[in-house]
Amino acid sequence: MSDSLPARAYFLACDPDGGPVSRRPRAALLVRAAAVTDLVLRGNLRDQRGHAEPTGAAPTGDLLLDDLLADLRTRSPASWRALLRRGKNDTLQSLETQLSAAGLLEEGSSSILHRKVVVPSDPTRVRDAHARLDHALTAPLSEVDASAAALASLAAASGAGMSRSDARHHVDRLKELEKLAGPVLPALRKAVAGRRAARIAAFSGGSGG
C-alpha cells in the first residue's frame, strides 16, 4: 500500500514540511492519474484505440487499485481523460482512508483556521517521496524505472508535487521521462487544461455580469 504509485503521489503532494496535501483539486487529479498509471504498469489496463481496456491479469492485491479496476470493468471502455475526471475526489478520499487505517496518516489541524485535516504520521515519507522524485530528475536515465518516470511526468503535468519553476528547470529531462509514462499523461494534460479553461470562463462570466 505505502509503495503503490497513488500512495507515492499522495506523499509527494503533501506539504514538504510534513503537513497535509496542498491544492487538493490538483492532488486529486494526480492521485487518480497515478492509480490508473499503476494499473497500466502492472498490466491490468491497456490502451485500445485511445480508451482504457482492462486485461485478464490477476488482481493487484492493493484494495484501492482493485476497487478501481472492478469499477472500470463495469464501465469500460472509457477514454483516458474521462477516466481521470470521473471519481477523482472519491479516489483521493479512499486513499486517505486506507493510509489512515494503515497508520500512515493521522489527524492534525491546518495552519489556516485550524481545521481538522489528515497529515503524514511520519514526515520521512514525504521527504522520501521528494528524494525519489529528485533521483528521477537527475540520475542517469538507465537508473530510473518506469514508475518513477511516470510519477515525475504526472507531477509536472498536474502541478501537484512539483512546482512550475522546477518543471521548467527540468523540461529536457521530463521530455525523456515522458516516453516511459504511458497513455495517461496526455489525458492528464487535457484534464488540467480543461480545468484551467473552466476557471477562466467562470471568472470572465462573473466579472462581466
UniProtKB/TrEMBL annotation:
Residue stretches in coiled coil: none
Major localization listed first in the record, in broad terms: Golgi
Entry keyword annotation includes Iron: no
Membrane keyword on record: yes
Entry's localization field: Golgi apparatus membrane
Keywords of the record: Golgi apparatus, Lipid-binding, Membrane
InterPro entries per record: GPP34-like, GPP34-like_sf
Membrane topology recorded in Swiss-Prot or TrEMBL: Peripheral membrane protein
Record's protein name: Golgi phosphoprotein 3 (GPP34)
Organism name: Amycolatopsis rubida
